[in-house]
Amino acid sequence: MKKIIMYVGLDVHKNSIEVAFADAGRDGEVRSYGKIDGNLTALDKVIRKLEAKGVELHFAYEAGPCGYEIYRHLSSNGYDCIVVAPSMIPRQSGNRIKTDRRDAQMLARLHRAGELTSIYVPALEDEAMRDLTRAREDARSVERKAKQRILAFLLRHGYRYSGKTPWSKAHFRWVAIIKMPHPAQQIVLQESLDALSECTDRVNRLTEQIQRLLPQWRMFPVAQALQTLRGVSLIVSTTTIAELGDLTRFASPVELMSYLGLVPLEHSSGEQTKRGSITKTGNGHVRRVLVEAAWAYRLPARVSTALHLRQEGMPQNVCAISWKAQLRLCNRYKRLLEKGKANQLVITAIARELCGFMWAIANEVATPAA
Known about the structure:
Elements (H helix, E strand, L loop, with lengths): L3 E9 L3 E8 L6 E8 L2 H12 L3 E8 L6 H8 L3 E5 L15 H14 L10 H33 L12 H8 L6 H31 L6 H7 L7 H11 L8 H7 L4 E3 L8 E4 L5 H11 L10 H7 L4 H23 L4 H20 L8
Parallel strand pairs: 1-4, 4-5
Antiparallel strand pairs: 1-2, 2-3, 6-7
């Protein structure tokens, strides 16, 4: 007897899950099951009730703050389940009513119609490394804001640093000898400096943990190979792989560039073609580190001592791609500047092509299965 296929939409929240299901077929009924507790035990109870009717279940729910616990639970039990990005779900422009019940029904209906695009769900180990790199990124953000607060405080009281580089050793010595006119202001300055020191120590600790845990990660060979590229050191390579996973899952470098939001906007109709800034629709963490790495290509192509050390023991074909990237990107940076392009626009173009070379290197390195 052929099993009946049923598509289940889950609107997942912290303490509840709204469940709806759609029978297979274009005219199949879309029904609401109701709201259940937001735990796996309650979900398993619903699944047993539905399976008692002899149906084959296919699940879908939106990515959100609750993570991938439901996906991993359902997948480990042999059920088909997809996680979809909220921004990629088709929505009716005239629909002004939004409820959990309607959202669950919409997911079930669209899943049945094949209109939902699943996102990449990282393995547990990959997600752990992603959490570590994001924690370091957050710590760097707090450190940067602490520096801004100190500079703003000093500027407000008329203290301007005459040197070239802020937060160098000379700058710290200059800050240390400042005597504020009132004891309360001196306390504020010292507390701000102590807070900055704590932020810097936290960044250093997290960086050390990334260095220690990276060799134990299954994606270490790929992350190490990416470091043969100029500007792509420990943090850039680890962040890229932790956020994107296996780069070979992208069919082409253009697909990877589009995923990262590094391709230009386009609004063309008829004979009229309009292109704008980059879409910024993809992973912002990777896009940020790629832009930082792209600044290394503003200088002439050369293999520095640090880059030579990173390339030691790496396959010759990987190093050849790295040198090819230097020759192309350094020349492209110079050529675009000569055309009068804005510096930031040039760097964005370099970052877009850099991720293409990263894709090429990833295809040269064997990736262990999750």
